[in-house]
Amino acid sequence: MSDESATEEAAREILAQLPWLVGTDAPRITAAIERALSLPDPGSRREALRQALRSDVRVRTWVEQRLDEGSGRTDPPAGYGYQPLAGNPIGAAEATKFECRNPSCPQRDTWWRSFLGEAVPRCSGCTRPLSRASE
Hints:
Blueprint: H1 3-22, H2 26-37, H3 42-53, H4 57-69, E1 96-99, E2 110-113, E3 131-132
Antiparallel strand pairs: 1-2, 1-3
Helix pairs in contact: 1-2, 1-3, 1-4, 2-3
């Protein structure tokens, strides 16, 4: 790809990025780039594009980074994309169920422990510690 066509391609690409990149300066820079792209003479088009793309340091930095990427915008070779980890995936851990086993309790609580380090609460009905449920 020639230098002129790479500059024109970068100019067309940055048009969509300008509102995010430069904020309220986007309309002014967009107008300058579109005016440069519409010029019929290749020499004057190239010079006007370079001036428009150098008019703001944020635009200049983006274009320099884009042009430095060069041909690095291709798909990765086969075998270099996303690969899941080897082996069997680990399933979600189950929560442990605790319940009140006091037969005379007026309000038998049930509670699920999500994390191993959590302290087991007491039953709100009889204030005894909850016991691991047998399943």
